[in-house]
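Please fill in the sequence for the structure shown.

STRUCTURE ENCODING:
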């Protein structure tokens, strides 16, 4: 019997080896051209989706006001959006693992189309709240990350994921500017119509240029086996299983808490820019554009070079250390010019932390679970947007702007000491 088992095992290994060779041969034939085209398509989809998202963010306050929604109601509207994104992130990731990156991106784009369609028909407050529902599956950035994760090796992944920051910067700059211009010249619903049409275009891009299955064949078999065992896309048990893998919870805690204080600050930034810096709306827009340009420069010129020359452990510690320095600067700043200086290391730390932690976490979990892991990572910002308004409002009213800086400093010093003593990140999982 043991001989038969050994023979079967040997046969299975030979079959896997043959399939791996076929896959590599196919990848060589279709080659780097198709893989590069798929990655570029993922970047394009992410850029367009972020652009449309920032366009609607610019017009949403005016649309809500025109329907008679007050500031408290608008806060509830934003919280609804955050909760839906928070809940949908891990579910979207599980969907990507079970059905592939192409299906996940199509789902995101279809949800975006539904989002803008419902928004374009929002003639009352209940309809406006209803338009938020498709946001549960609007996760173009994690979908693009899934494509990149499937098509790159662990050594290439950090640099490739880092370039998605360029998409974010372009989305901020073009989306914010275009939304204002279109709504001013042609009406408040025109950016919404552009977002609707743009998401339909994204669907076509995903169908044409994103491969149906990006994983190699052996990984797909593992994926299908795990999918059959875990069952539903909504399985909480499978999501919790990933968090219990060695090193995952530790890195995820660093990811959440290192950027939490600055996330609280950014939630209050529109009020801080008016009350503390004394800026007009146009000047606040210029400041956001400056933030977007810095994001593009850092992600395009700095992050990639550092990831090619430094270890992930070093870069993780560096980003947390820089965050601590940013906290000290925020605690001492008094003018908008101080903030313009502080925002340079802030963007660096923010970009580096997000890129490095995403890379570490996707390398730590089995390749069949990278989508779920990316979905969990994507829930960090919605989590901040959900719980943040209450906490940030309290800090600002009771202790002022400096409280965000002192919180940032203390939290990141504690995390830096922890990282010096810990052995994370671990070596990547071999599945």
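FILLED IN BY: designer on duty
SEQUENCE:
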């Amino acid at each position: 019997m043991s001989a038969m088992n050994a023979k079967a095992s040997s046969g299975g290994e030979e079959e896997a080896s043959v399939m791996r060779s076929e896959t590599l041969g196919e990848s060589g034939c279709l080659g780097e051209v198709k893989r590069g085209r798929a990655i570029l398509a993922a970047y394009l989809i992410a850029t367009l989706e972020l652009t449309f998202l920032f366009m609607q963010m610019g017009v949403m306050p005016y649309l809500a006001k025109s329907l008679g929604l007050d500031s408290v109601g608008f806060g509830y509207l934003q919280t609804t959006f955050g909760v839906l994104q928070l809940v949908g992130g891990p579910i979207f990731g599980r969907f990507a693992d079970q059905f592939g990156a192409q299906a996940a991106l199509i789902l995101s784009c279809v949800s975006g189309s539904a989002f803008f369609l419902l928004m374009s028909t929002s003639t009352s407050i209940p309809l406006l709240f209803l338009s938020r529902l498709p946001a549960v599956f609007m996760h173009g950035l994690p979908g693009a990350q899934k494509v990149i994760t499937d098509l790159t090796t662990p050594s290439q992944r950090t640099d490739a994921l880092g370039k998605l920051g360029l998409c974010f910067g372009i989305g901020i700059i073009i989306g914010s500017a275009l939304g204002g211009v279109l709504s001013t010249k042609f009406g408040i619903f025109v950016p919404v119509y552009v977002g609707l049409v743009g998401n339909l275009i994204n669907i076509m891009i995903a169908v044409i240029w994103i491969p149906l299955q990006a994983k190699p064949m052996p990984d797909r078999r593992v994926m299908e086996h795990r999918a059959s065992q875990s069952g539903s896309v909504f399985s909480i048990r499978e999501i919790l299983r990933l968090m219990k893998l060695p090193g995952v919870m530790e890195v995820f805690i660093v990811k959440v808490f290192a950027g939490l204080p600055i996330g609280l600050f950014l939630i209050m930034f529109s009020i801080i820019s008016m009350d503390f810096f004394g800026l007009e709306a146009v000047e606040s827009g210029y400041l956001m554009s400056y933030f977007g340009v810095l994001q593009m420069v850092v992600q395009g010129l700095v992050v990639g070079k550092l990831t090619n020359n430094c270890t992930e452990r070093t870069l993780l510690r560096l980003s947390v250390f820089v965050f601590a320095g940013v906290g000290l600067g925020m605690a001492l700043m008094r003018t908008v010019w101080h903030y313009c200086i502080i925002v340079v290391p802030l963007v660096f730390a923010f970009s580096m932390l997000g890129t490095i932690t995403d890379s570490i976490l996707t390398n730590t979990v089995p390749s069949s679970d990278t989508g779920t892991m990316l979905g969990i990572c994507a829930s960090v910002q919605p989590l901040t947007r959900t719980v943040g308004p209450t906490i940030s409002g309290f800090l600002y009213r009771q202790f002022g702007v400096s409280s965000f800086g002192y919180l940032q400093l203390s939290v990141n010093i504690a995390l830096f000491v922890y990282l010096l003593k810990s052995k994370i990140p671990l070596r990547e999982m071999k599945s």
